[in-house]
Write a structure and sequence with these properties.
This protein has one domain. It is built from twelve helices and two strands; from the N terminus they run ααααββαααααααα. The protein has a two-stranded antiparallel ribbon. It is globular and about 55 Å long. Strand 1 and strand 2 form a beta hairpin. The mean pLDDT is 92. The protein is mainly α.
């Protein structure tokens, strides 16, 4: 528990006081946000706001994680390092995307194929590595199986598992990326899901089958360190949100959104709650679906279901204030997190 607190505290402080430095540095170098011409008119005022703030989240998370383990002398785990590696790798893909946008002075960065290829390579490396590195109980960070509250059904095999995890990571990172369209929206929603994973992973540690055999115990490798990772990222997001809340002084960019989506997927894989993530991150799923529905409807019928996709921009165009959308979407995210946690804990309720 001390490692969780120290890691979260250090990452929050670093992000809180490091973000203003990033704002000054990025402003001086002209690393400003470029706005889509077809976007809501109100977004024109955001032009030039420093972007790539996700670098602060990633750096603060890594520093907080290391500091927590140094202070408490806990050993860093394979699962924790793999999740952080996934976060950093996807953050690098997002950084390249952001840098190309700034360099070319356009709202378009990496081509879709190149971006997807980068996400797939990073995701595939993670998927392969989580099946390795057994501990003294022969547990690896993940098993080649599907999972909801725990693994279920027969093993699906290594290749199908790797493909599934790559799709899952791509879906999660792109969903957070699509959500990052209004000040503080993606950051606040991610904090709620990360808080859920602090609770889930800590509960798995308290009811670990390798420590005490109780009904419904969990066969999970390094659950406590998964909680430390979630807490470190959550702390970094808290510090960053101080400056990213409406009106934002800095945007996380693809650097942050891809990294956050990756760490959520990584936590789901290593805590064996892959499908539960779709409920915990229900807001991200809805926003991603709104884009799929909009594109599918336009291609099939030539008509748009929403005034603009992703969904948050539809509400902007019908007259909702940005802060109203952000707060109400945070409430929706909170309801999904509450639902996911309720489902997770329901098997522990007395019958």
């Amino acid at each position: 528990m001390r490692t969780i607190i120290v890691s979260a505290g250090v990452s929050m402080i670093l992000a809180l006081f490091g973000t203003p430095l990033a704002i000054k540095l990025f402003s001086r170098r002209g690393y400003g946000q470029l706005i889509r011409e077809e976007g809501p008119a109100a977004h024109a005022t955001k032009r030039g706001t420093p972007t790539m703030g996700g670098t602060v989240i990633v750096v603060a998370t890594l520093a907080g994680y290391v500091a927590g383990h140094v202070v408490t002398k806990d050993t860093m785990s394979t699962s924790g390092l793999l999740i952080l590696g996934l976060m950093t790798g996807l953050g690098l893909v997002g950084f390249i995307d952001d840098f190309i946008k700034i360099y070319r002075q356009t709202s378009l960065g990496l081509r879709a194929g190149a971006k997807l290829a980068g996400q797939s390579v990073v995701g595939a490396i993670f998927a392969v590595e989580v099946l390795k590195h057994p501990d003294g109980y022969a547990l690896t960070p993940a098993d080649p199986s599907l999972s909801f509250l725990r693994d279920f059904g027969p093993a699906i095999g290594v290749l199908p598992f790797v493909l599934w995890i790559v799709i899952m990571i791509g879906g999660a990172s792109n969903a957070v990326n699509l959500t990052d369209g209004l000040d503080g929206l993606a950051t606040g929603a991610a904090i709620l899901v990360l808080a859920a994973y602090v609770l889930i992973a800590n509960w798995q540690y308290r009811n670990d089958c390798t420590v005490t055999l109780v009904p419904n115990c969990y066969v999970v490798k390094d659950p406590l360190d998964c909680a430390v990772v979630a807490a470190a990222v959550m702390g970094a997001c808290f510090g960053f949100l101080w400056w990213n809340a409406p009106p934002a002084k800095i945007f996380m960019g693809d650097t942050g959104s891809l990294a956050l989506g990756g760490v959520l997927a990584g936590l789901a894989v290593c805590t064996h709650t892959q499908l539960l993530l779709a409920i915990l991150g229900g807001l991200f799923v809805i926003i991603a679906l709104s884009v799929m529905i909009q594109v599918g409807s336009f291609k099939l019928t030539g008509r748009r279901v929403f005034r603009m996709a992703p969904l948050q921009h539809h509400f902007e165009l019908i007259g909702w204030a940005e802060t109203t959308i952000v707060i109400r979407f945070w409430l929706v995210a909170g309801l999904f997190v509450a639902l996911g946690l309720g489902i997770f804990y329901i098997e522990w309720l007395p019958t």
